[in-house]
C-alpha cells in the first residue's frame, strides 16, 4: 500500500475542515448573535462539503488503486466521481453503508484487523452522513424560500410577532433592523415582511436592501401591502412607511374596505402611520369611527401616527435638556438659536415653545434661516395662530382674569433673521447686535441646515467662535451645540469626545436613530408617560396606548419632569444630567414647610407648559359660543379633538387650587382666574355635583 500516506492525509484534512467549520460557526453564534440562520448554515456547509469530499476521495482512490489494481477511474474522473458522491450525500441519494464499509476496509488494510481507527472512522463518517442531509435540506429550503418567499411565510409560527412594512426603503430597513436586534436580545420570535420590495428602480441600492433584509430572515414580496393574504386573521403590526405620505394615507383608508373587514385583517392589530402632516390625526380619527361600526370594540386596532422628526427632537430635549447650559449660571436667561427652518428646525421650534417653560425664566428663541420670516410665520400659524400670539406682550391669549386687564408674561421671546449661514456671513450674523443680544451669546444652538457636510462645518466653526467669544468677554459660560448628522458612524465618532471645555457638541439625527425602534415607538419614554397618566386616570396600558391624544400629552409631561426638578432648585450637575437622586430630592422639597408655595408655583408652571404643548399640537381656545355648541355632545367633553379646540387653553395665576363657590351662578370679579371660571361654568353647564376633580388645576399638580 504505497499510497497510505495519501489516504491518511486526506482523512486528516477532512477532520480539519470539519473541526474548523464547526469552531467557526460556534464562534459566529457567540460573537455575532444577529447573524441569520441561513448565513450560519452556508458558512458551515462549505467546510462540511470539503470534509465529505476528502473522505469520499480517499475511499474512492483506495478502491481504484488497491482493489481495482489501478484499472479503474483516472485522476480527473475520480475527482468528479468523488464530488458527485459528495452531492449525493447531501441529497440523501447515496449508499451510505458501502461508503462506511469501504473506508473501514481501507484503515484495516493500513493498521491491521485489531485497529480502533476503523471504528473511529465509522463513527466520524456516520456523523457526516447525518449532518450533510440536514444542512443540505436547510440550504435548499432557504433557496426555495428566497425564490418563493410566500412558502416561508406560510410555515412561520403563528405565535410570532409579525411586522408588515408597506415598502422596502432605507427608513423601513433601519426600523426593521432595530426591531430585529431587539428581538434577538429578548429572544423574541419575529416575522418581518416587506411588501413592494422589488419596486426600487435603482438596481444597486435595491439589491443591497434586499440582501440586508434577507440577512435578517425577512420575507420580501413583490405584492403591495393591500394584496397581502397571509396575515389575514392574525394580529400584526402594520408599518405604513412609504416615502410618499399620501400613499400611507391611501393604504390606511383602503384597509377599512369591505374585503379587508371580511377577512378580519385589522382585528387586534397595530398600525403605525408615518407622517409629519397634521391631517394624519384627522384621518386616524375618521378611520376609527368607521371601524367602530364594523368590529367589536375589544378587537379594534391601535392606530398611531408616527412623527419621526418630532420624536427625534423630543429625544434630544430629554437627553440634552435645554437647561443644561444654565447649571451654575448667575443669570436666568435661556437663549436658544435654531439654524435652519426645515422639518427638524421647525419641530425644534415647536418643541422649544413648551419644553423651555421654567420658573422665573422667559426663554428667547431665535430662528436663522434662508426662508423669509413671513413664510415661517404662516407655517406656524397654520398649526395654531396662538403659538406666536403667546410670544407677544399683553396679547389677548395671555389674559388671566375675566374682569381685570392683567396678562401673563409671554411664553417666549421670538426673533427671526433671514440669512444664509452656510457661506462667509456666519461670523457677521453671529456677532451682530448689542452686547447681550448677539446670537453668539446663545446658550443652546441647534444646527439643522440640510446636509451632513454643512451641519458639521457650521457646528465646528460655531464652537470655535463661541470659545473665542467667551475668552474675549471673560465669561465662564456653558454652551450646547446640537447638530444633525445623518451618518450614524460619523455621529458616533464625533460624540466620543463631546466636550470642548465648557462647550458641549452633540450630533443627533442619524437615519438609524431617527428610525430606531426606541425613537419610532417612544419605548424609552412610554412607561414614564403611562405612570404620569395614572396620577389622574386609572386605566390599563392597552387603553392608554390606544388614546393618541392622551399618549402624546403624557409623553410631553414625562419629558418635562426633569425641567420641573430644575425649576424647583435641583441644579447640581449630577442631578440635572440624570445620574443623581433628583426625584427623591424633589419629593423632600415638596414636604418641607414652604413646599406648598413651591407646589402652587409648579402647578402654574405645568399648566403653562401644557398650554404651550397643546398649541404646538394645533389646538386653540374656543370662543364661549363655540364651547357651548359642541361641549358634552357626542364624544366631546370641554374639548373637541377633531376641531382642535380645548377650553382649558386659558391662563391662570400662581395662587394654586382654591375653594370655588359652586352654588353662586357668577363668581366674584377679579378673585378667580379664567381656569377657575371654566371649572365653574362646567359645573353649571352640566348640572353635575362638583368634586375635587372638577377644578382643572388638580391635573397640573406636580407628581
Distance between the termini: 89 Å
Instruction: Tell me, briefly, the overall form.
Output: elongated
Main structural class = alpha/beta
Q: What value does the average pLDDT take?
A: 85
Radius of gyration, whole Å: 34 Å
Unreliable runs, pLDDT <50, ≥5 residues?
Answer: none
In total, the number of strands is 15
Biggest β-sheet description:
7 strands, mixed
**Widest β-sheet, arrangement of strands:** 9-8-7-10-11-13-12
Question: What is the tally of helical segments?
Answer: 29
Helix content: 40-55%
Q: Proportion of β residues?
A: 5-15%
How would you describe what is shown here?
This protein has about 700 residues and is an alpha/beta fold. It has 29 helices and 15 strands. The strands form three sheets. It has a seven-stranded mixed β-sheet, sandwiched between helices. Strands 3-2-1-4-5-6 form a six-stranded parallel β-sheet, with helices on both faces. The relative contact order is 0.06. The model has no long low-confidence stretch (mean pLDDT about 85).
Put the structure in a nutshell:
By secondary structure, the chain is an alpha/beta fold.
SSE blueprint:
Elements lengths: L3 H28 L5 H31 L7 H17 L4 H16 L5 H31 L1 H7 L5 E5 L4 H17 L3 E5 L8 H13 L3 E2 L16 E4 L4 H10 L3 H5 L7 E5 L4 H14 L9 E5 L1 H12 L15 E5 L3 H13 L8 E6 L3 H11 L2 H4 L23 E6 L7 H6 L12 E4 L4 H21 L6 E6 L3 H7 L4 E2 L2 E6 L2 H4 L2 H5 L1 H12 L6 H6 L1 H12 L1 H7 L5 H4 L5 H10 L3 H22 L7 H7 L8 E2 L4 E2 L27 H13 L17
Parallel strand pairs: 1-2, 1-4, 2-3, 4-5, 5-6, 7-8, 7-10, 8-9, 10-11, 11-13
Antiparallel strand pairs: 12-13, 14-15
